[in-house]
Amino acid sequence: MRHAILIWIYVTMVACQIVSQDLADMNPLLYNDRALKGPGVIARVTPTGTQYVASVVAAAFSSHFADIKPPKERKDHQLTSAPTVTLRRLMLETLQLDKQLVSTTTSDGLLRIAVRNISVSTSAVLSGELRGIKLQDSVTFRTPSLRLDVAIRIMKNVGGNPALKMETCKITTQGIKLITKPMDPRNGKSLADAIANDANSIFSDMICSKIGHIVTNRVNQRFALLSSRISLEDSKNFDIVKIIMQAEERMKRLVRQNRLRSNQTIRRNVHAHNARRVSRDPVRGKRQMDEDKFHLILNSFNFSRADSLMLDYSMITSPSLTSRGIELQTSGEVFQSGHVTPFGAGPIFLPRVPNPSQMLQIVVSDFVPNALMFHGHRIKLFDTRIDWTTPQFGPVMKTTCDLSTGSLFCIGDLFPALREMLPDRNIAFVFTTLKAPAVIVQPEEKGGIHFSLLGLIRLVSDRNEPIGEMEIRIEALMKMKLTPKSVKGKVTIEEIQFTSRSPRILLQEELDDAGFLSREILQRMVNDILRQGIPIPIHPLFKLVKPKLTLMSRSLLLETNFLLNEHIIAQLTAETLVA
């Protein structure tokens, strides 16, 4: 009981310390967001975008039909209207489709895909007899007007990535052309009619089984290997095929290790059984078991840099498929490995009606940039230094300036007391954030994007001597610029306040006068913090094209068209990946 109380006290103290540190690091603008738990991003693939995606995927599927060999694929078919004849060794030779003839609808949680005028060629060997004539010829039958109707359910797998399930698959043909060696005309017509009568069933068995095999054993298995969390560094040049290939290799290696470990365990168990016959040492046995467990735990860990920032684009729930398109809710959180974000995203909403001219609508909560800046603050991502070697600002970072120095204005003009104490010296500003910066997004008519920052500037001489410190508080307006991969901000400072921590050398009255004069330097410093941009947390398969940005309450609406990497889509459906 005493141990339980001590553990409870210890855990409570640690929890209080973590909460206290979170509050110390959080920007006060976000205190009311601590209880929020909504998605950081919601997205809608509009009907226009859905049809485009389906056409790309259908084309990728068609290019791999020949190399797909499902384990349960039917090879033989007995003709219904000519039961003495069997088609053996059925094989799909060619399948060609036009992407322009792919159409889609979304409703009732299903993505329905229809493809018209598919050209299909199939070969088989005739077996049996017809009108007393033994049949053993090879035949080919073709149709230029096959129609495929497939219903796909899109779900969320355990890793937060998409998982597909083929619910229905239907084939409809409108006549076939039979190609065979010369035979009795009556038999030729009877065979053509019998095959045409069974064509829907024959092609359904062959094509639908292949689609199911691709979905289950290629696409789903590969998405299951793909992590829904990637480092910000990797997100800049994300190679999905390479990542999946590496994951497949790790999986194969793990299977080999498990087999080896299983064999070693069997041998160890036999050895332990024999040892117990000689010695009954329960302490030693328990110690060996604990060591085995410890090694298994170590082998399951994936050690990474503690200060890395990760982007989580995992789906929170399964997608919603309605007449508006495919709608998804994703985390969108930027986080530090091993740490939690102490605040969340508030309610965000997609437009009620899809934009018919755009393929994709994305609403990004201001939780996403705030999470980035919170964890970035913790790992000192925004620390920066401006000194006499900094381009454009080097000549300004001096305590004394005149015509002979090449600059008519310098830091000494802002801080006369500093100039008198340390004349003719070079000065460095070393900046660090005291709390995480924050942005609050509102519509343009309500002020737009408000940026808040509290930091510390340490002044250091060219001899690396500490001179003094001052706090800086900045309130600014931010303008956003979109790129296909990120949202980049640029601030215009509205208010600057300095507070001296070294009042003997950095006089408060001088700091009060310095705000206006130092605006350009400080805007440069803040914009350097934001120069890397805020990543748009969408799946790496998408490349945005000319995104349009609209400010909403606590969120950004991005409306855009997009391109899918058709080579990568084809790779994901292929039997073997190639880097």
TrEMBL record:
Keywords: Disulfide bond, Signal
Pfam families according to UniProt: LBP_BPI_CETP_C
Annotated organism of origin: Caenorhabditis latens
Coiled-coil segments on the chain, per record: none
Family: Belongs to the BPI/LBP/Plunc superfamily. BPI/LBP family.
Protein name (Swiss-Prot/TrEMBL): Lipid-binding serum glycoprotein C-terminal domain-containing protein
Record domain Lipid-binding serum glycoprotein C-terminal: where: 354-560
UniProt lineage: Eukaryota, Metazoa, Ecdysozoa, Nematoda, Chromadorea
Domain of life: Eukaryota
Molecular function as annotated in GO: lipid binding
Matches recorded under Gene3D superfamilies: Bactericidal permeability-increasing protein, domain 1 (3.15.10.10), Bactericidal permeability-increasing protein, domain 2 (3.15.20.10)
PROSITE patterns linked: PROKAR_LIPOPROTEIN
Signal peptide coordinates: 1-16
Domain Lipid-binding serum glycoprotein N-terminal as annotated: residue spans: 44-264
GO CC annotation terms, alphabetical: extracellular space
